[in-house]
Amino acid sequence: MTKDLLEQYPDICAEIEELKAKDSAAVSDVVQASADEFPFNLHSVTVRGLPNPKHAERIRELEVQKAEVEAFVDRLAYRPQKLARCVMKHGTRWKVIMREMSGYKSPEALRKEFSRIFKKI
């Protein structure tokens, strides 16, 4: 588990949602075709595209990273866990995190506290 991976958690979640949305938007079209045999009547045929297999593979990779981050945060003590969850929610916007953590420490102090979590590992 790395500090960078934890800081990228919001981006990982956003990318998973984006790829799932792309896969759920099925591409389809209606085309005209004729029968193979006599009387060669014209009829409509619906053609649908398949989901991109690269998207499914990337989603699996991102889900593994997301689960790894969540498992790491669950093993932390209360205060570091609360700080890590704020970073997971807001990224590294330390002033926003300071307000959510009740604001008695400066943003720089919170940043240092966050970096100390990974020095202990």
Can you give keywords for this protein?
single chain, 121 residues, mainly alpha, 2 strands
Structure overview:
By secondary structure, the protein is mostly helical. It has one domain (3-119). Helix content is 63%, strand content 12%. It is built from 6 helices and 2 strands. It has helices at residues 3-7, 9-24, 53-74, 78-90, 94-100, 107-119; strands at 28-34, 42-48. It has a two-stranded antiparallel ribbon. Helix 2 packs antiparallel against helix 3 (53-74) and helix 4 crosses helix 5. The longest helix is centred in the middle third of the chain and has 22 residues, at 53-74. It is rod-shaped and about 80 Å long. The chain starts with a helix and ends with a helix.
Summarize the structure.
By secondary structure, this protein is mostly helical. The chain has one domain.
Helix proportion range: 55-70%
Total helix count?
6
Please list the strands of the largest sheet in the order they lie side by side: 1-2
Please identify the structural class as seen in this structure. Answer: mainly alpha
* Mean pLDDT across all amino acids: 90
Strand content is 5-15%
Report the C-alpha radius of gyration, rounded: 24 Å
| Count of separate structural domains | 1
How would you describe the shape? rod-shaped
Q: Secondary-structure element sequence?
A: HHEEHHHH
Low-confidence segments, given as residue ranges, are none
End-to-end C-alpha gap: 9 Å
Number of strand elements: 2
Largest sheet composition: 2 strands, antiparallel
